[in-house]
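From: lab user (bench 3)
To: helpdesk
Subject: output format question, protein + beta-D-glucopyranose

Hello, I'm new to running complex predictions and I'm not sure whether the block I got back is the full result or only part of it. Here's what I submitted:
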Amino acid sequence: MKTKSKSLFSKICKFYCKKESSTVDHEIRDVCKDLLLTNDQLKLVMERLAEEINRGLNKETHNDSIVKCFTTYVQDLPNGTEKGNFLALDLGGTNFRVLLITLDGQNFDMKSKIYAIPQILMLGTGNQLFDHIAQCLALFVKDLNLQDEVLPLGFTFSFPLTQHGLTKGFLVRWTKGFNVSGVIGEDVVALLEAAISRRNDIKIDVCAILNDTTGTLMSCAWKNRNCRIGLIVGTGSNACYVEKTEKATCAIAGNYNPHKPHMLINTEWGAFGESGVLDFILTEFDRVVDDNSLNPKKQLFEKMISGMYMGELARVILEKLVDNGLLFGGKCPTDLKKRGKFFTKYVSEIEADPKGKYHNCREVLAELGARNVTDQDCENVRYVCSVVSRRAAHLASAGIAMLLNRVNENNVTVGIDGSVYRFHPHFHDLMTEKISELQNHKFDLMLSEDGSGRGAALVAAVASQKR
Ligand code: BGC
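Helpdesk reply: Thanks, we reran it on our side. This is the complete output you should expect:
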């Protein structure tokens, strides 16, 4: 009797264990193994990124450096006394937005509108793009009946800029989905002002141009005095941080005050890896995604982290698994074969399924044309998504751990924005855990709600107060 009940118990146990964790096939793990990074590898990434940052900051090596470390000319963080109405433009993420922000002590009010930038404009001419931006701005201002006021404006322009002051920024390269002709090498503020004056129907005073990382840091610093780092993990990826002015010898031009002890540096870490220093972790899948991108061989670190590429990376791996007969009985769902069809949001949705449940996963697979998939297929698909997103979180963590070492203070807050960080169900936890393993300072990761819009208004506010 005793033995009988024991064997029944072990049968039940086996049944439940099996149910609870359909395990990932070992062939699948094998195909994905190069995407799992050890702490030793991540520490090497930190070391190499630190070297590249030194090259970017130093005026002798800045011109040839890969991680540019651009001076932002933002030297004052907001102190909460900023007041008034400010406009902000936010270009470079998933959406283009125009915002009106009213600051008054610790209160702020925001009205904003999202405008589409049709893909044809993302690949068109500079005049077309800036005329469109000016038109959206004019519509917004007129809607609010503010066309007769001279409004200070902060422009969040989330692409690499060489700045010669707070209102002069020359585009170095386009990234993400943009490739607009006639803008590289030009002062983007001048292009915006020219487009506004071509219309001649609104009065705008452009007080600042800034990167979204800068906006995110400023917006976080407004509430939290310990914020020293701004991070974006969205369509693209990048970070900025507070550096000692004396270390940024590249900051030679422009109207900055070298006597102020600190300055914000926009690292533009997305470009990291272009000199080959990340080849030791690049996988065959990264190379496929890179080869088919708008900017092959560029922005390699960004391509391993950000939302513009995350879904595509997962798709390329899944396609290989199907081709090797390891998924869906070797039959590829129609849309899984098509570039760009496995959206990054699918990664978040699939990973949001509770363990052992595959509701979202089945929905996504049905959208791609795969029906009647097995639990085992779903478990494997989820594994692929988790490997891709974990690696992204771990690489972003290596970058942040390196910056925390540089800032070298305890209790630093990192302000973070971007769709991947916001919507992926585990990104925040993965980063918190990994950053703690990679360095010893105490830190906090804080969602900087609406960083790039609010931050632009704050930079404009600080700048217009000084004027
Ligand atoms: C751009 C950065 C930007 C980041 C996040 C990158 O592609 O080069 O300037 O901060 O995307 O939007």
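A quick orientation on your result: The mean pLDDT is 91. Let us know if anything else is unclear.
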